[in-house]
């Protein structure tokens, strides 16, 4: 992928309503469910253009891992961010190394997602937390998934079933972006009929559609922010994304 792609996504990760709200959800739930050790040892796998690492850095010491060599170059040269090039299916770390292990919209990019989740669990410390987010529902499959090189989308049950229930437990799972799931479904069906280059910019994903419309950005932000306030009191019945927080048992 070229520099223009990462520059496009750099802006989206920091200004687009969906990314901003996901970031707030990540911080909120990590604070609630992570061990109260200070500072937290955090592993962030699949950091993209670095926004999740920036957010997690407010909670502890973050080690960043990214698979794409060109993305690693962007992070190092453009952001001066330390990052290790590596794969979620073969993490270069010892067992039980991190208090929090994160993979935000990562495992859908991996054909062998079971091995990926096992690796996340392996490097998680006893009583530590694994936090994973994924796109939800194959019904929503579209060009957005193709351009982002997804293998699949998930139901909440499909996601939680990847986690070893003998080595720990799912402490919270839910969908999110429920209130906008209907409009997103309609948009994705409509965009199948419209030439892709008419409505998408360099990154080519749905995030680029109307990305510069400040009014809509603010409106959708407020709608989705209402959902975040419900977390973790409720587990939403549907949405465009799903997430799972799994806690490793204390084996010491």
Write a structural description:
Strand 1, helix 3 and strand 2 form a beta-alpha-beta unit. This protein has a seven-stranded mixed beta sheet. It has a single domain, classed as Vaccinia Virus protein VP39 (Rossmann fold, 3-Layer(aba) Sandwich). The chain is an alpha/beta fold and 252 residues long. The chain is globular and about 50 Å long. The mean pLDDT is 90. The protein is built from ten helices and seven strands. The longest helix has 17 residues. The N and C termini lie far apart (44 Å).
Condensed summary:
Residues 43-131 form the Methyltransferase type domain. This protein has helices at residues 3-15, 17-33, 51-56, 69-79, 113-122, 143-147, 156-160, 181-191, 196-199, 214-228; strands at 40-45, 60-66, 84-85, 98-104, 124-135, 168-176, 241-248.
Q: Supply the number of helical segments.
A: 10
Q: Give the CATH architecture.
A: 3-Layer(aba) Sandwich
Helix-strand string: HHEHEHEEHEHHEHHHE
Q: Work out the radius of gyration.
A: 17 Å
Key phrases:
252 residues, 7-stranded mixed beta sheet, alpha/beta, Rossmann fold, single chain, globular, 10 helices
Reconstruct the topology from this structure.
Elements: H1 3-15, H2 17-33, E1 40-45, H3 51-56, E2 60-66, H4 69-79, E3 84-85, E4 98-104, H5 113-122, E5 124-135, H6 143-147, H7 156-160, E6 168-176, H8 181-191, H9 196-199, H10 214-228, E7 241-248
Parallel strand pairs: 1-2, 1-4, 2-3, 4-5
Antiparallel strand pairs: 5-7, 6-7
Pfam families: Methyltransf_11
Keywords: Methyltransferase, S-adenosyl-L-methionine, Transferase
Protein name: Class I SAM-dependent methyltransferase
């Amino acid at each position: 992928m070229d520099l223009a792609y990462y520059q496009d996504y750099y802006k989206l990760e920091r200004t687009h309503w969906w990314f901003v709200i996901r970031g707030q959800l990540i911080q909120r739930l990590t604070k609630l469910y992570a061990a109260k050790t200070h500072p937290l040892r955090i592993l962030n796998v699949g950091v993209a253009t670095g926004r999740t690492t920036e957010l997690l850095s407010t909670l502890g010491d973050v080690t960043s891992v990214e698979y794409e060599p060109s993305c690693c170059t962007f992070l190092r040269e453009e952001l001066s961010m330390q990052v290790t090039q590596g794969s979620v299916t073969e993490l270069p770390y010892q067992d039980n190394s991190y208090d929090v292990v994160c993979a935000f919209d990562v495992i859908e990019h991996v054909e062998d997602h079971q091995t990926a989740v096992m690796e996340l669990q392996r490097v998680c410390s006893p009583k530590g937390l694994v936090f994973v987010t994924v796109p939800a529902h194959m019904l929503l499959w579209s060009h957005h998934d193709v351009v982002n090189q997804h293998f699949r989308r998930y139901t909440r049950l499909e996601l939680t079933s990847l986690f070893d229930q003998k080595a720990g437990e799912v402490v919270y799972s839910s969908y999110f972006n429920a209130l906008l799931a209907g409009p997103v479904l309609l948009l994705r069906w409509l965009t199948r009929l419209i030439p892709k280059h008419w409505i998408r910019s360099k990154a080519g994903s749905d995030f680029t559609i109307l990305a510069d419309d400040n009014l809509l950005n603010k409106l959708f932000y407020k709608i989705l922010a209402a959902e975040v306030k419900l977390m973790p009191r409720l587990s939403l019945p549907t949405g465009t994304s799903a997430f799972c927080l799994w806690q490793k048992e204390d084996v010491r």
